[in-house]
Design brief:
With 261 residues, this protein is an alpha/beta fold. 16% of the residues lie in helices and 33% in strands. The protein has 2 domains: 6-95, Beta Barrel (Elongation Factor Tu (Ef-tu), domain 3); 106-218, 3-Layer(aba) Sandwich (Rossmann fold). A hairpin with a 2-residue loop joins β2 and β3. It is globular, with a radius of gyration of 18 Å.
Length: 261
C-alpha cells in the first residue's frame, strides 16, 4: 500500500476489550505495508457522511489481518463500534512519521489510556527484528474497567507488563509516570510513549531530567485531513523555527525535546 493510498475495505471483526474500547480488524489487501506509529484516516465511504475521517494509529499487523484499537470518545468512534461485520470503511494511509526502531537491549513503552494502541505492532516488530531485546510495557488507566486485557500479548510481545490505575483498583495506585523510577536513566533503554498531553508533558520532563536521549512520543491532536491542508494538528516547536509543526506531516512521532510543552 502506497503512502496515502485510499482503500475501501470490509470490516471483518469487531472485538470489545474493555469499557468503551474495541478492536476494528480488516484483511490486509495485496501490497499492504505500514510501520509502527503510522496512522490512517478512517471514515464512511458514503457521500455526505456526518463526520470527517478520524486519525487512528495502526494497532497491530499480524498474519493476514491488521487492526486499530479504538476508544469510543465521540460520535465517530462510537459509530464505528455499531457497524456489523462486512460494513465498508474508507481508509486513507499509511500517513505520518512512524517510530524509529533503534537497536537497544531494552525498549520501554509507556501508555496512558488509548495511547496503548500503537504498542502492539511496535512490540511485534521489535520482537521479530531484535529477538534478544527486553520489551517492557507500563500502562495506566483511571480505573480497572478501562484496562484492556492483553491476553496472549503479555507473553508473546512483552517481557514485562506493569499496570497502573488512578484509583488503585488494578495494579499500582497512581499514574504510569509515577512508576518509572526503577528504569529512568538506563543508558541501554529506548523510550516510547503515547497518551494524554498531561502525561506526555510530565514524562518528557522526567526523562529530560534523567538524561534520556533515545526517546520518541506519539502525539495526538485533532485533525481533519491527514495531509497538512487543514492546519489543525499544530504543535508548538521548542526552537521556534518553524514556530509550529504539523503532526500529520512531521509526526505523529516526535522527539519530545522538540516540543514546547
Amino acid at each position: 500500500m502506497n503512502p496515502g493510498a485510499v482503500r475501501t475495505l470490509p470490516l471483518v471483526e469487531v472485538e470489545d476489550v474493555s469499557k468503551g474500547t474495541y478492536w476494528l480488524r480488516f484483511h490486509a489487501p495485496a501490497g499492504f505495508a505500514c510501520d509502527p506509529g503510522h496512522f490512517f484516516m478512517l471514515s464512511s465511504p458514503e457521500n455526505g457522511a456526518p463526520f470527517l475521517g478520524r486519525p487512528l494509529s495502526i494497532g497491530d499487523v499480524h498474519g493476514e489481518r491488521f487492526g486499530f484499537l479504538v476508544r469510543a470518545l465521540g460520535g465517530a468512534t462510537a459509530w464505528f463500534r455499531t457497524l456489523p461485520v462486512g460494513s465498508p470503511i474508507r481508509l486513507v494511509g499509511p500517513l505520518g512519521r512512524p517510530f524509529l526502531q533503534p537497536e537497544r537491549s531494552v525498549h520501554c513503552m509507556v501508555a496512558g489510556g488509548i495511547g496503548l494502541a500503537p504498542f502492539f505492532y511496535l512490540a511485534r516488530r521489535l520482537r521479530a527484528t531484535q529477538p534478544g531485546a527486553r520489551i517492557e510495557l507500563r500502562y495506566g488507566e483511571r480505573s480497572a474497567d478501562a484496562h484492556a486485557p492483553l491476553m496472549e500479548a503479555e507473553g508473546e510481545l512483552f517481557d514485562v507488563v506493569e499496570r497502573f490505575t488512578d484509583d488503585g483498583s488494578l495494579g499500582a495506585r497512581g499514574t504510569v509516570v509515577d512508576g518509572l523510577d526503577d528504569r529512568l536513566g538506563d543508558p541501554n533503554a529506548a523510550w516510547y510513549a503515547c497518551g494524554p498531553h498531561a502525561m506526555l508533558r510530565a514524562l518528557a520532563r522526567r526523562l529530560d531530567e534523567a538524561g534520556a536521549t533515545d526517546v520518541q512520543f506519539s502525539l495526538e491532536e485533532r485533525m481533519a485531513c491527514g495531509f497538512g491542508v487543514c492546519q489543525a494538528c499544530i504543535v508548538p516547536n521548542r526552537s521556534g523555527k518553524p514556530r509550529y509543526r504539523l503532526l500529520c506531516m512531521d509526526g505523529p512521532v516526535l522527539d519530545p525535546r522538540e516540543v514546547a510543552w
